[in-house]
Protein backbone atom coordinates (compact mmCIF):
# COMPACT_ATOMS: atom_id res chain seq x y z
CA UNK A 1 0.00 0.00 0.00
CA UNK A 2 1.37 3.41 -0.87
CA UNK A 3 0.17 6.26 1.26
CA UNK A 4 1.77 9.57 0.24
CA UNK A 5 0.83 11.17 3.57
CA UNK A 6 2.73 8.57 5.67
CA UNK A 7 6.49 8.75 5.93
CA UNK A 8 7.86 5.31 5.15
CA UNK A 9 9.69 3.73 8.05
CA UNK A 10 12.34 1.08 7.96
CA UNK A 11 10.81 -2.19 9.00
CA UNK A 12 12.67 -2.45 12.31
CA UNK A 13 12.00 1.17 13.29
CA UNK A 14 8.36 0.78 12.37
CA UNK A 15 7.98 -2.34 14.46
CA UNK A 16 9.49 -0.85 17.56
CA UNK A 17 7.35 2.27 17.31
CA UNK A 18 4.25 0.17 16.75
CA UNK A 19 4.98 -1.80 19.90
CA UNK A 20 4.32 1.24 22.10
CA UNK A 21 0.68 1.22 21.02
CA UNK A 22 0.10 -1.69 23.38
CA UNK A 23 -2.26 -4.50 22.63
CA UNK A 24 -5.40 -3.61 24.51
CA UNK A 25 -7.08 -1.22 22.08
CA UNK A 26 -10.45 -1.66 20.53
CA UNK A 27 -10.81 -2.21 16.82
CA UNK A 28 -9.36 0.66 14.93
CA UNK A 29 -11.12 2.14 11.97
CA UNK A 30 -9.93 2.53 8.42
CA UNK A 31 -8.23 5.82 9.23
CA UNK A 32 -5.97 4.27 11.82
CA UNK A 33 -2.87 4.61 9.64
CA UNK A 34 -3.25 8.29 8.96
CA UNK A 35 -1.34 10.56 11.33
CA UNK A 36 -3.55 13.19 13.02
CA UNK A 37 -3.24 16.69 11.60
CA UNK A 38 -2.35 18.22 14.98
CA UNK A 39 -1.11 17.07 18.40
CA UNK A 40 1.75 14.71 19.16
CA UNK A 41 2.81 12.39 16.35
CA UNK A 42 1.06 9.02 16.56
CA UNK A 43 3.36 6.03 16.00
CA UNK A 44 2.63 4.47 12.64
CA UNK A 45 2.06 0.82 12.02
CA UNK A 46 4.70 -0.79 9.85
CA UNK A 47 4.48 -0.02 6.17
CA UNK A 48 5.38 -2.40 3.40
CA UNK A 49 7.99 -1.29 0.89
CA UNK A 50 6.83 0.14 -2.42
CA UNK A 51 5.46 -2.56 -4.64
CA UNK A 52 7.19 -2.71 -7.95
CA UNK A 53 6.70 -6.42 -8.55
CA UNK A 54 4.13 -7.72 -10.95
CA UNK A 55 4.14 -11.22 -9.62
CA UNK A 56 4.54 -13.40 -6.57
CA UNK A 57 7.35 -15.86 -5.92
CA UNK A 58 6.54 -19.36 -7.07
CA UNK A 59 4.73 -21.21 -4.29
CA UNK A 60 1.52 -23.18 -4.39
CA UNK A 61 -0.26 -20.79 -2.07
CA UNK A 62 -1.25 -17.23 -2.95
CA UNK A 63 0.47 -14.42 -1.08
CA UNK A 64 -1.93 -11.50 -1.47
CA UNK A 65 0.36 -9.06 0.28
CA UNK A 66 2.91 -9.51 -2.53
CA UNK A 67 0.52 -8.18 -5.15
CA UNK A 68 0.86 -4.51 -6.03
CA UNK A 69 -1.68 -2.70 -3.87
CA UNK A 70 -2.23 -5.92 -1.98
CA UNK A 71 -2.49 -4.51 1.56
CA UNK A 72 -6.04 -3.18 1.70
CA UNK A 73 -6.27 -3.73 5.41
CA UNK A 74 -3.11 -3.72 7.47
CA UNK A 75 -2.76 -4.97 11.02
CA UNK A 76 -5.70 -3.88 13.18
CA UNK A 77 -5.74 -4.42 16.91
CA UNK A 78 -9.06 -5.66 18.15
CA UNK A 79 -10.37 -7.19 21.35
CA UNK A 80 -12.26 -9.70 19.25
CA UNK A 81 -8.94 -11.49 18.74
CA UNK A 82 -8.30 -12.09 22.42
CA UNK A 83 -10.44 -15.17 23.07
CA UNK A 84 -8.65 -16.88 20.19
CA UNK A 85 -5.16 -15.93 21.33
CA UNK A 86 -3.33 -19.00 22.72
CA UNK A 87 -1.66 -18.76 26.12
CA UNK A 88 1.05 -21.43 25.68
CA UNK A 89 1.39 -21.68 21.89
CA UNK A 90 3.63 -19.25 20.03
CA UNK A 91 1.76 -16.68 17.94
CA UNK A 92 3.15 -13.46 16.42
CA UNK A 93 2.38 -10.15 18.15
CA UNK A 94 0.76 -8.88 14.95
CA UNK A 95 0.92 -9.78 11.26
CA UNK A 96 1.02 -13.14 9.53
CA UNK A 97 3.14 -16.14 10.48
CA UNK A 98 3.65 -19.47 8.74
CA UNK A 99 6.54 -21.98 8.80
CA UNK A 100 8.97 -22.39 11.70
CA UNK A 101 12.52 -21.61 10.56
CA UNK A 102 16.03 -21.81 11.96
CA UNK A 103 15.16 -24.08 14.88
CA UNK A 104 18.44 -24.35 16.75
CA UNK A 105 19.71 -24.74 20.31
CA UNK A 106 22.72 -22.47 20.81
CA UNK A 107 23.91 -24.18 24.00
CA UNK A 108 21.84 -21.93 26.27
CA UNK A 109 18.72 -20.86 24.45
CA UNK A 110 16.36 -22.27 21.88
CA UNK A 111 15.69 -20.13 18.83
CA UNK A 112 12.47 -20.02 16.90
CA UNK A 113 12.63 -18.02 13.68
CA UNK A 114 9.52 -17.96 11.57
CA UNK A 115 8.09 -16.90 8.23
CA UNK A 116 6.65 -13.51 8.97
CA UNK A 117 4.83 -10.68 7.27
CA UNK A 118 4.94 -7.82 9.79
CA UNK A 119 2.78 -5.54 7.64
CA UNK A 120 -0.55 -7.35 7.37
CA UNK A 121 -2.34 -10.44 8.61
CA UNK A 122 -1.84 -12.36 5.41
CA UNK A 123 1.09 -13.88 3.54
CA UNK A 124 3.68 -11.90 1.63
CA UNK A 125 6.73 -9.65 2.19
CA UNK A 126 8.30 -12.53 4.05
CA UNK A 127 10.86 -11.76 6.78
CA UNK A 128 12.27 -14.00 9.48
CA UNK A 129 10.59 -13.19 12.80
CA UNK A 130 12.46 -14.35 15.89
CA UNK A 131 11.85 -15.49 19.46
CA UNK A 132 14.04 -17.18 22.06
CA UNK A 133 13.27 -19.50 24.94
CA UNK A 134 15.07 -21.30 27.75
CA UNK A 135 12.67 -24.26 27.58
CA UNK A 136 10.75 -24.15 24.25
CA UNK A 137 7.62 -23.01 26.13
CA UNK A 138 8.33 -19.50 27.49
CA UNK A 139 9.13 -17.32 24.47
CA UNK A 140 10.63 -13.83 24.36
CA UNK A 141 10.09 -11.80 21.20
CA UNK A 142 13.25 -10.63 19.46
CA UNK A 143 13.71 -8.15 16.63
CA UNK A 144 13.19 -9.34 13.08
CA UNK A 145 16.28 -11.33 12.08
CA UNK A 146 16.16 -11.31 8.27
CA UNK A 147 14.46 -8.71 6.10
CA UNK A 148 13.00 -8.86 2.66
CA UNK A 149 15.67 -7.40 0.34
CA UNK A 150 16.00 -6.44 -3.29
CA UNK A 151 17.03 -10.05 -3.94
CA UNK A 152 13.72 -11.33 -2.67
CA UNK A 153 11.74 -12.44 0.33
CA UNK A 154 13.40 -14.44 3.11
CA UNK A 155 11.73 -17.81 2.64
CA UNK A 156 12.06 -20.88 4.81
CA UNK A 157 15.43 -22.18 5.97
CA UNK A 158 17.44 -23.44 8.89
CA UNK A 159 20.11 -22.37 11.35
CA UNK A 160 23.10 -24.39 12.50
CA UNK A 161 25.86 -23.82 15.01
CA UNK A 162 29.15 -23.64 13.13
CA UNK A 163 30.98 -24.30 16.39
CA UNK A 164 34.40 -25.00 14.84
CA UNK A 165 34.28 -22.20 12.30
CA UNK A 166 34.22 -24.69 9.43
CA UNK A 167 32.89 -21.90 7.26
CA UNK A 168 35.87 -19.69 8.00
CA UNK A 169 33.40 -16.82 8.23
CA UNK A 170 33.89 -16.13 11.93
CA UNK A 171 36.74 -14.26 13.53
CA UNK A 172 37.16 -16.76 16.38
CA UNK A 173 37.68 -20.53 16.41
CA UNK A 174 34.42 -20.91 18.36
CA UNK A 175 32.53 -19.90 15.24
CA UNK A 176 28.88 -18.92 15.57
CA UNK A 177 25.45 -19.33 14.09
CA UNK A 178 24.85 -19.71 10.36
CA UNK A 179 21.46 -19.41 8.67
CA UNK A 180 20.75 -21.00 5.28
CA UNK A 181 17.52 -20.00 3.63
CA UNK A 182 15.86 -19.27 0.32
CA UNK A 183 15.69 -15.83 -1.25
CA UNK A 184 12.56 -15.90 -3.37
CA UNK A 185 11.61 -13.50 -6.12
CA UNK A 186 9.12 -14.11 -8.93
CA UNK A 187 11.99 -15.27 -11.14
CA UNK A 188 14.41 -17.06 -8.85
CA UNK A 189 14.67 -19.18 -5.75
CA UNK A 190 18.23 -19.73 -4.54
CA UNK A 191 19.89 -20.65 -1.27
CA UNK A 192 21.50 -17.86 0.73
CA UNK A 193 23.77 -17.84 3.74
CA UNK A 194 23.96 -15.36 6.62
CA UNK A 195 26.18 -15.33 9.69
CA UNK A 196 25.40 -14.15 13.16
CA UNK A 197 28.14 -12.81 15.41
CA UNK A 198 25.77 -12.23 18.33
CA UNK A 199 24.17 -15.63 18.87
CA UNK A 200 21.32 -15.28 16.45
CA UNK A 201 20.17 -11.74 17.32
CA UNK A 202 21.27 -10.20 14.03
CA UNK A 203 22.53 -11.65 10.77
CA UNK A 204 24.89 -10.42 8.10
CA UNK A 205 24.29 -11.76 4.62
CA UNK A 206 27.29 -13.47 3.05
CA UNK A 207 28.87 -11.23 0.41
CA UNK A 208 28.96 -13.93 -2.29
CA UNK A 209 25.38 -15.12 -2.06
CA UNK A 210 23.70 -17.18 -3.33
CA UNK A 211 25.63 -20.22 -2.14
CA UNK A 212 23.43 -22.57 -4.18
CA UNK A 213 21.60 -21.61 -7.33
CA UNK A 214 20.30 -23.98 -10.03
CA UNK A 215 18.49 -21.30 -12.06
CA UNK A 216 15.08 -22.37 -10.89
CA UNK A 217 12.15 -20.47 -9.46
CA UNK A 218 10.96 -23.59 -7.64
CA UNK A 219 13.92 -24.58 -5.44
CA UNK A 220 13.56 -23.82 -1.76
CA UNK A 221 13.55 -24.48 1.97
CA UNK A 222 17.07 -25.81 2.78
CA UNK A 223 17.62 -27.77 5.97
CA UNK A 224 21.13 -28.71 7.01
CA UNK A 225 22.43 -31.29 9.46
CA UNK A 226 25.93 -32.48 10.28
CA UNK A 227 26.55 -36.07 9.13
CA UNK A 228 29.18 -37.42 11.54
CA UNK A 229 30.22 -40.58 9.62
CA UNK A 230 31.28 -38.55 6.57
CA UNK A 231 32.25 -35.40 8.50
CA UNK A 232 30.18 -33.21 6.16
CA UNK A 233 27.21 -30.95 6.36
CA UNK A 234 24.26 -32.34 4.41
CA UNK A 235 21.53 -30.16 2.96
CA UNK A 236 18.07 -31.32 1.90
CA UNK A 237 16.21 -28.83 -0.28
CA UNK A 238 13.00 -29.09 -2.29
CA UNK A 239 12.78 -28.98 -6.07
CA UNK A 240 9.18 -28.20 -5.37
CA UNK A 241 7.36 -28.62 -8.68
CA UNK A 242 9.54 -31.59 -9.69
CA UNK A 243 8.40 -33.32 -6.48
CA UNK A 244 11.97 -34.09 -5.56
CA UNK A 245 14.17 -33.55 -2.56
CA UNK A 246 17.76 -32.79 -3.53
CA UNK A 247 20.66 -33.77 -1.27
CA UNK A 248 23.87 -31.70 -1.21
CA UNK A 249 27.07 -31.92 0.87
CA UNK A 250 29.56 -29.32 2.05
CA UNK A 251 32.53 -29.12 4.37
CA UNK A 252 32.27 -25.36 4.90
CA UNK A 253 28.53 -24.56 4.52
CA UNK A 254 29.46 -22.31 1.58
CA UNK A 255 30.36 -24.69 -1.27
CA UNK A 256 27.77 -27.36 -1.99
CA UNK A 257 28.08 -30.53 -4.09
CA UNK A 258 25.04 -32.37 -5.40
CA UNK A 259 24.71 -35.91 -3.97
CA UNK A 260 21.37 -37.37 -5.04
CA UNK A 261 17.66 -36.73 -5.53
CA UNK A 262 14.77 -38.43 -3.75
CA UNK A 263 11.28 -38.70 -5.19
CA UNK A 264 8.69 -38.22 -6.39
CA UNK A 265 7.58 -40.44 -3.56
CA UNK A 266 4.51 -40.75 -1.41
CA UNK A 267 1.95 -38.02 -1.85
CA UNK A 268 2.27 -36.08 -5.07
CA UNK A 269 0.24 -32.90 -4.62
CA UNK A 270 1.37 -29.65 -6.21
CA UNK A 271 4.58 -28.66 -4.36
CA UNK A 272 7.09 -30.46 -2.16
CA UNK A 273 8.30 -28.05 0.53
CA UNK A 274 10.29 -27.86 3.75
CA UNK A 275 12.20 -31.18 3.70
CA UNK A 276 13.87 -32.24 6.95
CA UNK A 277 16.36 -35.06 7.53
CA UNK A 278 17.12 -36.40 11.00
CA UNK A 279 18.36 -39.53 12.72
CA UNK A 280 15.75 -40.60 15.26
CA UNK A 281 15.97 -43.07 18.16
CA UNK A 282 13.97 -46.28 17.89
CA UNK A 283 12.33 -47.26 21.17
CA UNK A 284 14.07 -50.36 22.44
CA UNK A 285 17.36 -49.50 20.76
CA UNK A 286 19.01 -48.27 17.60
CA UNK A 287 18.21 -45.40 15.26
CA UNK A 288 16.72 -44.86 11.81
CA UNK A 289 16.81 -41.85 9.53
CA UNK A 290 13.63 -39.97 8.83
CA UNK A 291 12.92 -37.75 5.86
CA UNK A 292 10.01 -35.34 6.32
CA UNK A 293 8.50 -33.79 3.21
CA UNK A 294 5.70 -31.24 3.38
CA UNK A 295 3.21 -31.27 0.50
CA UNK A 296 0.88 -28.44 -0.45
CA UNK A 297 -1.82 -28.75 -1.61
CA UNK A 298 -2.41 -32.47 -1.82
CA UNK A 299 -3.13 -33.76 1.68
CA UNK A 300 -5.69 -36.59 1.94
CA UNK A 301 -7.49 -34.35 4.43
CA UNK A 302 -7.15 -31.35 2.10
CA UNK A 303 -4.47 -28.73 1.60
CA UNK A 304 -1.22 -28.93 3.54
CA UNK A 305 0.33 -31.99 5.19
CA UNK A 306 3.73 -33.24 6.30
CA UNK A 307 4.54 -36.81 5.24
CA UNK A 308 7.53 -38.87 6.35
CA UNK A 309 9.66 -41.78 5.24
CA UNK A 310 11.72 -44.07 7.50
CA UNK A 311 14.96 -45.46 6.15
CA UNK A 312 18.70 -45.25 5.95
CA UNK A 313 20.93 -42.35 4.97
CA UNK A 314 24.40 -43.45 3.86
CA UNK A 315 25.89 -39.99 3.51
CA UNK A 316 24.87 -39.74 -0.15
CA UNK A 317 21.34 -40.96 -0.58
CA UNK A 318 18.24 -41.68 1.46
CA UNK A 319 16.98 -45.23 1.03
CA UNK A 320 13.51 -45.80 2.48
CA UNK A 321 12.93 -49.09 4.31
CA UNK A 322 9.73 -49.72 2.36
CA UNK A 323 7.06 -47.97 0.34
CA UNK A 324 5.09 -46.83 3.37
CA UNK A 325 4.23 -43.12 3.65
CA UNK A 326 3.71 -41.88 7.17
CA UNK A 327 1.54 -38.86 7.90
CA UNK A 328 2.50 -36.75 10.87
CA UNK A 329 -1.12 -35.85 11.62
CA UNK A 330 -4.61 -37.23 11.12
CA UNK A 331 -6.25 -33.78 11.07
CA UNK A 332 -5.13 -30.91 8.86
CA UNK A 333 -3.43 -28.15 10.83
CA UNK A 334 0.20 -29.25 11.25
CA UNK A 335 2.46 -28.25 8.36
CA UNK A 336 6.05 -27.45 7.45
CA UNK A 337 7.41 -29.48 10.37
CA UNK A 338 10.99 -28.59 11.23
CA UNK A 339 13.37 -30.33 13.64
CA UNK A 340 15.73 -28.70 16.14
CA UNK A 341 19.40 -28.64 15.30
CA UNK A 342 22.23 -29.07 17.84
CA UNK A 343 20.05 -30.75 20.48
CA UNK A 344 21.87 -32.25 23.47
CA UNK A 345 21.97 -36.07 23.26
CA UNK A 346 20.64 -35.80 19.69
CA UNK A 347 17.09 -35.54 21.04
CA UNK A 348 14.62 -35.29 18.15
CA UNK A 349 12.31 -32.32 18.75
CA UNK A 350 10.07 -30.63 16.20
CA UNK A 351 7.71 -27.71 15.83
CA UNK A 352 5.22 -27.37 12.98
CA UNK A 353 3.09 -24.49 11.79
CA UNK A 354 -0.37 -24.97 13.27
CA UNK A 355 -2.21 -24.05 10.10
CA UNK A 356 -3.19 -24.98 6.59
CA UNK A 357 -2.77 -22.89 3.44
CA UNK A 358 -6.38 -23.66 2.48
CA UNK A 359 -7.70 -21.10 4.98
CA UNK A 360 -4.71 -19.61 6.84
CA UNK A 361 -5.30 -16.15 5.42
CA UNK A 362 -9.01 -16.06 6.19
CA UNK A 363 -9.01 -17.04 9.86
CA UNK A 364 -11.28 -14.91 12.02
CA UNK A 365 -8.50 -12.98 13.76
CA UNK A 366 -7.66 -9.48 12.57
CA UNK A 367 -4.36 -8.38 14.07
CA UNK A 368 -2.42 -11.68 13.91
CA UNK A 369 -2.73 -14.93 12.07
CA UNK A 370 -0.68 -18.08 12.58
CA UNK A 371 0.34 -20.29 15.50
CA UNK A 372 3.00 -22.91 16.13
CA UNK A 373 2.39 -26.37 17.55
CA UNK A 374 3.82 -27.17 20.95
CA UNK A 375 7.37 -28.51 20.77
CA UNK A 376 7.16 -32.26 20.31
CA UNK A 377 9.58 -35.03 21.17
CA UNK A 378 9.81 -37.59 18.40
CA UNK A 379 10.74 -41.28 18.59
CA UNK A 380 10.15 -44.25 16.32
CA UNK A 381 8.07 -47.07 17.76
CA UNK A 382 7.01 -50.45 16.44
CA UNK A 383 3.23 -50.54 16.15
CA UNK A 384 1.00 -53.62 16.20
CA UNK A 385 2.09 -54.49 12.64
CA UNK A 386 5.76 -54.45 13.58
CA UNK A 387 6.30 -51.40 11.35
CA UNK A 388 8.17 -48.34 12.59
CA UNK A 389 5.98 -45.32 13.15
CA UNK A 390 6.55 -41.82 14.41
CA UNK A 391 5.37 -41.16 17.96
CA UNK A 392 5.09 -37.50 18.99
CA UNK A 393 4.49 -36.15 22.48
CA UNK A 394 4.45 -32.58 23.78
CA UNK A 395 7.79 -31.72 25.33
CA UNK A 396 7.98 -30.45 28.90
CA UNK A 397 4.28 -29.73 29.22
CA UNK A 398 4.11 -31.28 32.70
CA UNK A 399 6.16 -28.31 33.97
CA UNK A 400 3.18 -26.02 33.23
CA UNK A 401 0.56 -28.04 35.09
CA UNK A 402 -1.39 -26.33 37.85
CA UNK A 403 -3.33 -28.25 40.49
CA UNK A 404 -5.62 -30.68 38.64
CA UNK A 405 -9.31 -29.90 38.68
CA UNK A 406 -11.55 -32.29 40.60
CA UNK A 407 -12.73 -34.74 38.03
CA UNK A 408 -13.49 -38.25 39.28
CA UNK A 409 -12.37 -41.35 37.39
CA UNK A 410 -14.24 -44.66 37.77
CA UNK A 411 -17.22 -46.27 36.03
CA UNK A 412 -19.69 -44.76 33.63
CA UNK A 413 -22.68 -46.96 32.79
CA UNK A 414 -23.90 -47.08 29.21
CA UNK A 415 -25.68 -43.79 28.48
CA UNK A 416 -24.23 -42.07 31.53
CA UNK A 417 -22.21 -38.87 31.40
CA UNK A 418 -20.28 -36.66 33.76
CA UNK A 419 -19.59 -32.97 33.41
CA UNK A 420 -17.15 -30.45 34.94
CA UNK A 421 -16.67 -26.71 34.38
CA UNK A 422 -13.64 -25.53 32.49
CA UNK A 423 -11.49 -22.69 33.82
CA UNK A 424 -12.05 -19.68 31.57
CA UNK A 425 -9.29 -18.19 29.46
CA UNK A 426 -6.80 -20.92 30.34
CA UNK A 427 -5.18 -23.69 28.39
CA UNK A 428 -6.10 -27.12 29.71
CA UNK A 429 -4.58 -30.55 29.36
CA UNK A 430 -6.78 -33.60 29.72
CA UNK A 431 -5.00 -36.91 30.28
CA UNK A 432 -7.04 -40.07 30.48
CA UNK A 433 -7.14 -43.78 29.88
CA UNK A 434 -10.42 -45.53 29.22
CA UNK A 435 -11.56 -49.10 28.65
CA UNK A 436 -14.93 -49.51 26.99
CA UNK A 437 -16.92 -52.59 28.10
CA UNK A 438 -17.40 -55.61 25.91
CA UNK A 439 -20.28 -55.17 23.52
CA UNK A 440 -23.49 -55.77 25.48
CA UNK A 441 -25.50 -58.83 24.49
CA UNK A 442 -28.76 -58.57 22.62
CA UNK A 443 -28.04 -55.47 20.59
CA UNK A 444 -29.13 -55.69 17.00
CA UNK A 445 -26.71 -54.97 14.22
CA UNK A 446 -26.85 -51.30 13.37
CA UNK A 447 -28.16 -50.23 16.77
CA UNK A 448 -26.69 -46.95 17.83
CA UNK A 449 -24.10 -47.67 20.43
CA UNK A 450 -23.76 -51.29 19.44
CA UNK A 451 -20.11 -50.63 19.22
CA UNK A 452 -19.64 -48.78 22.47
CA UNK A 453 -18.30 -45.31 22.14
CA UNK A 454 -16.61 -42.97 24.53
CA UNK A 455 -17.20 -39.29 23.85
CA UNK A 456 -15.24 -36.33 25.18
CA UNK A 457 -17.03 -33.01 24.63
CA UNK A 458 -15.81 -29.46 25.21
CA UNK A 459 -18.99 -27.42 24.96
CA UNK A 460 -20.99 -24.40 25.99
CA UNK A 461 -24.60 -23.63 26.88
CA UNK A 462 -25.09 -22.11 23.43
CA UNK A 463 -24.91 -25.63 22.01
CA UNK A 464 -21.46 -25.40 20.47
CA UNK A 465 -19.34 -28.50 20.95
CA UNK A 466 -15.96 -29.88 20.08
CA UNK A 467 -15.88 -33.65 20.39
CA UNK A 468 -13.17 -36.25 20.46
CA UNK A 469 -14.49 -39.78 20.48
CA UNK A 470 -13.40 -43.40 20.49
CA UNK A 471 -15.32 -46.18 18.79
CA UNK A 472 -14.37 -49.37 20.62
CA UNK A 473 -15.78 -51.74 17.99
CA UNK A 474 -13.63 -50.44 15.17
CA UNK A 475 -10.77 -49.11 17.30
CA UNK A 476 -10.95 -45.67 15.75
CA UNK A 477 -10.71 -42.15 17.07
CA UNK A 478 -12.53 -39.10 15.74
CA UNK A 479 -12.20 -35.37 16.14
CA UNK A 480 -15.20 -33.20 15.27
CA UNK A 481 -14.93 -29.39 15.18
CA UNK A 482 -17.96 -28.94 12.94
CA UNK A 483 -20.27 -27.80 15.74
CA UNK A 484 -18.30 -24.64 16.49
CA UNK A 485 -19.71 -21.46 15.01
CA UNK A 486 -16.80 -18.98 14.97
CA UNK A 487 -15.48 -19.70 11.48
CA UNK A 488 -16.79 -21.31 8.33
CA UNK A 489 -15.08 -21.70 4.98
CA UNK A 490 -15.44 -24.47 2.40
CA UNK A 491 -12.04 -26.00 3.13
CA UNK A 492 -12.35 -25.65 6.91
CA UNK A 493 -13.68 -29.18 7.13
CA UNK A 494 -14.95 -30.45 10.43
CA UNK A 495 -14.34 -34.14 10.98
CA UNK A 496 -11.20 -36.26 11.04
CA UNK A 497 -10.48 -39.79 12.18
CA UNK A 498 -7.69 -42.28 12.59
CA UNK A 499 -7.26 -45.95 13.40
CA UNK A 500 -5.81 -46.94 16.76
CA UNK A 501 -4.72 -50.52 17.50
CA UNK A 502 -7.43 -52.95 16.29
CA UNK A 503 -9.29 -55.28 18.65
CA UNK A 504 -8.50 -53.13 21.61
CA UNK A 505 -11.27 -51.54 23.64
CA UNK A 506 -8.76 -49.51 25.60
CA UNK A 507 -7.33 -46.15 24.62
CA UNK A 508 -5.28 -43.45 26.23
CA UNK A 509 -5.20 -39.84 25.26
CA UNK A 510 -3.70 -36.43 26.04
CA UNK A 511 -5.64 -33.44 24.78
CA UNK A 512 -4.35 -29.87 24.91
CA UNK A 513 -6.93 -27.18 24.27
CA UNK A 514 -5.54 -23.64 24.20
CA UNK A 515 -7.85 -20.95 22.78
CA UNK A 516 -7.96 -21.59 18.99
CA UNK A 517 -5.61 -24.59 19.09
CA UNK A 518 -6.30 -28.24 19.79
CA UNK A 519 -3.66 -30.97 19.92
CA UNK A 520 -4.54 -34.61 20.52
CA UNK A 521 -1.96 -37.29 21.31
CA UNK A 522 -3.45 -40.80 21.47
CA UNK A 523 -1.78 -44.11 22.22
CA UNK A 524 1.45 -42.58 23.42
CA UNK A 525 1.70 -40.22 20.45
CA UNK A 526 1.26 -42.74 17.61
CA UNK A 527 -1.94 -40.95 16.59
CA UNK A 528 -1.71 -37.16 16.61
CA UNK A 529 -4.44 -34.73 15.55
CA UNK A 530 -3.85 -30.98 15.33
CA UNK A 531 -6.71 -28.61 14.62
CA UNK A 532 -7.61 -24.96 14.73
CA UNK A 533 -10.88 -24.48 16.59
CA UNK A 534 -13.04 -21.37 16.59
CA UNK A 535 -16.02 -21.44 18.93
CA UNK A 536 -18.19 -18.31 18.70
CA UNK A 537 -18.42 -18.28 22.52
CA UNK A 538 -16.02 -19.70 25.08
CA UNK A 539 -16.21 -23.44 25.77
CA UNK A 540 -17.44 -23.74 29.34
CA UNK A 541 -17.59 -27.40 30.25
CA UNK A 542 -16.02 -30.78 29.68
CA UNK A 543 -18.41 -33.73 29.40
CA UNK A 544 -17.41 -37.39 29.38
CA UNK A 545 -19.98 -39.82 28.10
CA UNK A 546 -20.21 -43.59 27.63
CA UNK A 547 -22.50 -44.38 24.74
CA UNK A 548 -23.84 -47.84 23.90
CA UNK A 549 -21.63 -49.64 26.42
CA UNK A 550 -20.28 -48.79 29.85
CA UNK A 551 -16.72 -47.67 30.29
CA UNK A 552 -14.10 -47.61 33.00
CA UNK A 553 -12.00 -44.49 33.25
CA UNK A 554 -8.72 -45.83 34.61
CA UNK A 555 -7.04 -42.48 35.06
CA UNK A 556 -8.28 -38.97 34.57
CA UNK A 557 -6.51 -35.65 35.13
CA UNK A 558 -7.58 -32.25 33.95
CA UNK A 559 -4.84 -29.68 34.41
CA UNK A 560 -5.07 -25.94 33.85
CA UNK A 561 -1.74 -24.97 32.25
CA UNK A 562 0.24 -21.92 33.34
CA UNK A 563 0.41 -19.21 30.71
CA UNK A 564 3.81 -18.86 29.04
CA UNK A 565 3.23 -16.39 26.22
CA UNK A 566 3.55 -12.61 26.73
CA UNK A 567 0.33 -11.81 24.87
CA UNK A 568 -3.01 -10.27 25.80
CA UNK A 569 -5.39 -13.21 26.04
CA UNK A 570 -8.91 -13.77 27.29
CA UNK A 571 -7.71 -14.24 30.88
CA UNK A 572 -5.53 -11.13 31.11
C1 LIG B 1 5.65 -23.51 3.06
C2 LIG B 1 6.20 -22.39 2.18
C3 LIG B 1 7.65 -22.62 1.86
C4 LIG B 1 8.16 -21.23 1.61
C5 LIG B 1 7.37 -20.43 2.62
C6 LIG B 1 7.01 -19.04 2.17
O1 LIG B 1 4.56 -23.14 3.82
O2 LIG B 1 5.44 -22.26 1.02
O3 LIG B 1 7.87 -23.48 0.77
O4 LIG B 1 9.53 -21.13 1.82
O5 LIG B 1 6.18 -21.14 2.87
O6 LIG B 1 6.50 -18.31 3.25
Secondary structure topology:
Layout: H1 11-19, E1 95-105, E2 110-117, E3 127-133, E4 140-146, E5 153-162, E6 176-184, E7 189-196, E8 204-205, E9 219-227, E10 232-239, E11 244-250, E12 257-262, E13 271-281, E14 287-296, E15 305-313, E16 318-320, E17 326-327, E18 335-339, E19 349-353, E20 368-369, E21 376-382, E22 388-394, E23 410-412, E24 417-421, E25 427-436, E26 453-459, E27 465-471, E28 476-483, E29 495-499, E30 506-514, E31 517-522, E32 527-532, E33 541-547, E34 551-561
Parallel strand pairs: 1-20
Antiparallel strand pairs: 1-2, 2-3, 3-4, 5-6, 6-7, 7-8, 9-10, 10-11, 11-12, 13-14, 14-15, 15-16, 15-17, 18-19, 19-21, 21-22, 23-34, 24-33, 25-30, 25-34, 26-27, 26-33, 27-28, 28-29, 30-31, 31-32
The structure holds beta-D-fructofuranose.
Domain Glycosyl hydrolase family 32 N-terminal: 89-394
Region (Disordered): 24-78
GO molecular function: hydrolase activity
Model description:
GO terms for molecular function: hydrolase activity. Residues 89-394 form the Glycosyl hydrolase family 32 N-terminal domain. Belongs to the glycosyl hydrolase 32 family. This protein has 572 residues and is an all-beta fold. 2% of the residues lie in helices and 41% in strands. The protein has one helix spanning 11-19; strands at 95-105, 110-117, 127-133, 140-146, 153-162, 176-184, 189-196, 204-205, 219-227, 232-239, 244-250, 257-262, 271-281, 287-296, 305-313, 318-320, 326-327, 335-339, 349-353, 368-369, 376-382, 388-394, 410-412, 417-421, 427-436, 453-459, 465-471, 476-483, 495-499, 506-514, 517-522, 527-532, 541-547, 551-561. Strand 10 and strand 11 form a beta hairpin. Residues 1-42 have low confidence and may be disordered. The structure holds beta-D-fructofuranose. Beta-D-fructofuranose binds next to strand 1, strand 5, strand 9 and strand 13.
Amino acid sequence: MTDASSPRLSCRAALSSFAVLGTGGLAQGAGANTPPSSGPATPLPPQAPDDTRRDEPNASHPSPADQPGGMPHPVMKTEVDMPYRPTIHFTPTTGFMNDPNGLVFDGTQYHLYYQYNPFAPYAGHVHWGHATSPDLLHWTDQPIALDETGAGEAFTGCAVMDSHNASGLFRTPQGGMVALYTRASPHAQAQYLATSYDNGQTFEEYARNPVLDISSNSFRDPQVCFHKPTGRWVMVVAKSRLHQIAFYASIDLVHWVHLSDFGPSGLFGVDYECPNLIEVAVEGGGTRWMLFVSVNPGAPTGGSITQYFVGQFDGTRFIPDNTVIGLTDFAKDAYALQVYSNMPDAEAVSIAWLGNWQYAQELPTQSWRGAMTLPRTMVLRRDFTGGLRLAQTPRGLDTLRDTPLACPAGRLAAGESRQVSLPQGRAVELCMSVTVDERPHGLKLGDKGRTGRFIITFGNEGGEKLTIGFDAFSGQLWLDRSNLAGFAQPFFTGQFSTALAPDDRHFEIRIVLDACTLEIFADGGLAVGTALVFPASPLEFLRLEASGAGATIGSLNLYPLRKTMPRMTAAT
